[in-house]
C-alpha cells in the first residue's frame, strides 16, 4: 500500500494552476507570433481559467491544456456543445484579413485595433468615405479664355465709367453769387465746371470783386489785390463749404443741407454728346491738336448754362475776417461748416440759448 506522504502524480497533473493570465500567456507564447495565434492562445487561457473556476465550485478538476498540450477542442466544428468563448475566437479569426506581427500584450479585441492595423496595409481605401456636408459649394474653375474675357469686360466697364465721370466733370455750369458783409452786393455769375474745386470759384469771385469795385470805390482794386483765397469763404445757404471739395462730390453724393434741400442742385449726369466725345478722345480717335480744335464745340453763353437761373443770395462770398468778428450775430450765427458724416436733413438747429431756429425753406 503506497505511503500517504508520496505525492499523487495525477493530483499534480490535473490540479488547477494558480497562475495569472499574463503568466500563462508568457509560458505558452514564446517569441514573435501572429496576432491571430496570440488571440487564440489568450482565448484558450481565459477559457481554461473559467473551467478551473467551475471545477473548484463543483469539486472536480480540469487539466490545463496550456500546460499539458491537450488538443484544442475548439479547432473542430462549432457545434451546440462548443462554449461561447470558442465561437468568439473563430469569429475573430474570420475578421482578420491577414496575419500581422504584434508586440502589444494588451491588444484590444475590438474592431478599432483591426481598423488601425488594416490602415497600414492599405485596407482603408476599400471603405466608403462620407461626404462632408459642412463644406460649401465650390465654384467651378474658370478656363483661361473665360478669365481673359472677364478681365476684358471689366476693363471696358472701367473705361466707360471713367469716360462718363470725366464728361460730367467737364460739363460747364453757372454760379450766381453775392458778396456778403452784413448786406448783399451782387457779384454776377461765374462760369465753372462740375469738376472744379471751391477754392477756384473763390479765386474767380475775387477777380469779379476787383472788376466791379466792390467795397470802397477808391481802393477797391488794391483791396481785392491783397485778398487771398484763404481770406474768403463760400457759404451755401447756411453751410460753409471747405476749399478742398469739388462740386462733383456734392453732385454724385446728392449731399443735402438743413431742410433736405440739395446743397448744389445741379445734375449729376453729363450730356450724351459730351460722353460720346469723351469716349472718342479716350480711344485716341482725335489724336492731333488740329482735329481736337475742329471738333471743339462753340462756347455757350453763361446765361444759358445750367444754374444760371438760380438764386444768387443762396451763394455768398464772405470775407473770413468779417465772419470772425460777427459769427455770434445773426445770420452768421446760424452758419456751420460742412461735415460729410452729418445728417443735416433731420437736424434741429438751435442757438447758444437753446432756442430753435426756424427757416423759411
From TrEMBL:
This is FAM50A/XAP5 C-terminal domain-containing protein. InterPro entries: FAM50A/XAP5_C (IPR048337), XAP5 (IPR007005). GO terms for cellular component: nucleus. Residues 58-77 have a biased composition (Polar residues). Residues 103-112 have a biased composition (Acidic residues). Residues 88-98 have a biased composition (Basic residues). GO terms for biological process: chromatin organization. Residues 171-348 form the FAM50A/XAP5 C-terminal domain. Residues 1-30, 44-123 are annotated as: Disordered. It comes from [Torrubiella] hemipterigena. Residues 44-54 have a biased composition (Basic and acidic residues).
Amino acid at each position: 500500500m503506497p505511503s500517504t506522504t508520496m505525492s499523487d502524480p495525477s493530483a499534480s497533473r490535473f490540479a488547477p494552476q494558480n497562475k495569472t493570465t499574463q503568466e500563462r500567456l508568457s509560458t505558452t507564447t514564446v517569441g514573435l507570433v501572429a496576432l491571430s495565434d496570440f488571440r487564440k492562445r489568450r482565448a484558450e487561457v481565459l477559457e481554461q481559467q473559467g473551467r478551473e473556476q467551475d471545477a473548484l465550485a463543483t469539486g472536480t478538476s480540469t487539466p490545463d491544456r496550456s500546460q499539458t498540450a491537450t488538443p484544442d477542442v475548439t479547432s473542430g466544428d462549432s457545434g451546440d456543445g462548443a462554449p461561447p468563448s470558442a465561437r468568439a475566437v473563430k469569429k475573430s479569426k474570420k475578421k482578420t484579413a491577414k496575419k500581422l506581427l504584434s508586440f502589444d500584450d494588451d491588444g484590444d479585441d475590438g474592431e478599432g485595433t483591426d481598423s488601425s492595423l488594416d490602415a497600414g496595409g492599405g485596407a482603408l481605401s476599400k471603405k466608403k468615405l462620407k461626404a462632408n456636408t459642412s463644406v460649401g459649394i465650390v465654384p467651378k474653375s474658370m478656363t483661361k479664355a473665360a478669365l481673359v474675357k472677364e478681365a476684358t469686360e471689366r476693363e471696358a466697364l472701367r473705361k466707360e465709367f471713367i469716360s462718363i465721370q470725366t464728361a460730367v466733370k467737364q460739363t460747364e455750369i453757372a454760379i450766381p453769387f453775392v458778396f456778403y458783409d452784413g448786406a448783399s452786393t451782387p457779384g454776377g455769375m461765374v462760369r465753372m465746371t462740375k469738376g472744379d474745386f471751391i477754392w477756384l470759384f473763390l479765386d474767380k469771385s475775387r477777380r469779379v470783386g476787383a472788376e466791379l469795385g466792390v467795397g470802397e470805390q477808391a481802393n477797391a482794386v488794391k483791396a481785392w489785390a491783397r485778398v487771398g483765397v484763404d481770406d474768403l469763404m463760400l457759404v451755401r445757404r447756411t453751410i460753409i463749404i471747405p476749399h478742398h471739395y469739388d462740386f462733383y462730390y456734392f453732385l454724385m453724393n446728392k449731399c443735402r443741407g438743413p431742410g433736405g434741400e440739395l446743397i448744389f442742385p445741379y445734375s449729376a449726369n453729363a450730356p450724351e454728346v459730351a460722353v460720346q466725345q469723351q469716349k472718342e478722345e479716350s480711344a485716341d480717335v482725335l489724336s492731333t491738336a488740329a482735329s481736337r480744335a475742329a471738333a471743339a464745340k462753340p462756347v455757350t453763353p453763361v446765361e444759358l448754362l445750367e444754374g444760371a437761373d438760380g438764386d444768387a443770395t443762396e451763394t455768398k462770398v464772405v470775407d473770413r475776417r468779417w465772419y470772425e468778428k460777427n459769427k455770434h450775430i445773426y445770420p452768421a450765427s446760424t452758419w456751420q461748416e460742412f461735415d460729410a458724416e452729418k445728417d443735416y436733413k433731420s437736424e434741429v438747429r438751435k442757438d447758444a440759448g437753446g432756442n430753435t431756429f426756424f427757416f423759411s425753406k
